[in-house]
Design a protein that fits this description.
Helix content is about 35%, strand content about 25%. The protein is built from nine helices and ten strands. The longest helix has 18 residues. It binds adenosine-5'-triphosphate and magnesium ion (MG). The site of adenosine-5'-triphosphate has 12 residues, from strand 2 and helix 1.
Amino acid sequence: MPRITLKGLEKRFGNTVAVQDLSCEIEDRELFVVVGPTACGKTTLLRLIAGLLRPDRGEILFDGERMNEVPPPQRGVRMVFQGQDYALFPHLAIYRERSWSNLSFPLRLRGGTWEAIRDRVGKVTQRMGIKRELFPRKPGQLSEGQKQRVALGKAMVLPPKVLLLDEPLAHLDPPARARAREELRRLHEELGATTIHVTHDLAEAFLLADRVAVMLEGHFVQTGTPKDIRNHPKNAFVADFVRSYEDSLRRAFSN
Ligand SMILES: Nc1ncnc2c1ncn2[C@@H]1O[C@H](COP(=O)(O)OP(=O)(O)OP(=O)(O)O)[C@@H](O)[C@H]1O
Ligand SMILES: [Mg+2]
């Protein structure tokens, strides 16, 4: 699984600087969580790493190899998108045996047999809590939370080298979110993919991450373990951010 190096990344949209002067190393098999307020550039950063956007400046390296010009399918990256359609196929069922469906698609594309696909989809849906009764439905017939689970499941059927998750738990209620968080952590240990998880919820970041990056206005203001950031915020913004979550952090960490 690749180590990801970001060097002086920059991405502008007209006058908006979405990502600026962003440098970081994300270790092999790390669960790295980027947390920051809305519009700070989180989704743009993931799209740059996935190859869906080209940086205006800077470099993206996987194990030291430059990725800037490598097209998305060759990067070994899977991204679970935020909101709306989650990149699911609207006209296909969630899963149908011996047919092209949302969950069988990535496996069949790789030439998997229908039997192997059934086994793999069975395992993943069980792990992700995707009930069989949802299989015949199309994405438009699912709730937001269910759609997110299916999108996560679709990313998991073919274990990627790099997994990019854009607010994957945003639509779940607190108990479902806590369960999904545990599941994500376990899946991460099982798959070992280098994972970048984006959220605006600091408690979620602290509970999940090996390391956290606090993002503001296009770059990382502080990177460190949850403990580092909680105990040694680097500036007033991070300190305020941590303080605003202090109650939920205390609750979460006392369990
Ligand atoms: N395609 C685009 N065209 C123009 N501006 C864009 C585009 N995509 C993003 N932006 C702008 O870039 C900035 C960063 O957007 P981005 O979607 O990366 O934020 P985010 O941190 O993911 O926010 P949120 O938490 O709300 O999802 C915002 O000001 C946004 O309006
Ligand atoms: Mg976003």
